[in-house]
Amino acid sequence: MTYDPLSIVIVPFPFTDKLQTKRRPALVLSHKLHQQKTNHITLLMITSAINSDWDSDHEIQDLTPTGLTSASIVRQKIFTIDSRLILERLGNLSDHDEAAVKKCLAMHLACLGVTGPHKVRGSDAQHAKLL
Q1: Mean pLDDT across 12-24
Q2: How many CB atoms sit inside 10 A of residue 52's CB?
């Protein structure tokens, strides 16, 4: 099975400091063709750890289309797993959140050539400056 880029799925999320996993939402980054050819999927972490602040975090503004039940942020913590580990598809980002996450990702990945401030959490005024 393949998943649309920027859709939200549930995965057994790997921790960097433990050998355990937990069921967590994640944002699909990889193209469907890549998923099909490799049986792997590249994802971004979604967390409710609002108190933990990374410069490149994006606080999801519109939860309605996401399927998420609590305030969440997309964190620039990228990982790749076997596609068979996807537990379920949850939803999608709104157009506004999708644009903001793309901007965060472009600024996070220096190889894409985008530079500038990463901060996108907070008010819509902050978002408008970056979009």
Answers
A1: 76
A2: 10
Does 18 score more than 80 pLDDT? no
Structure tokens given for 115: 């530079």
Under 8 Å between Cβ of 65 and 91: yes
Per-residue pLDDT tens over the stretch 88-122: 999 999 999 999 999 988 888 877 665 655 444 44
Q: Which residues contact 127 (CB under 8 A, 6 or more apart)?
A: 61, 96, 100, 120
Give kind and range of the element (H or E) at residue 98. Answer: helix 95-108
Number of helices (H), then strands (E), in the chain: 3, 6
> What would the mean pLDDT of 59-76 be, rounded to a whole number?
94
Q: Which candidate, 97, 29, 91, places its Cα nearest to that of 66?
A: 91
Please say whether the beta carbons of 9 and 86 come within 8 A.
yes
Distance, CA of 73 to CA of 70 (rounded, Å): 10
- What pTM does this model have? 0.80
* Residue-range domains of the chain with CATH: 7-130 (2.30.30.110)
Nearest CA to 83 out of 29, 22, 46 is that of 29
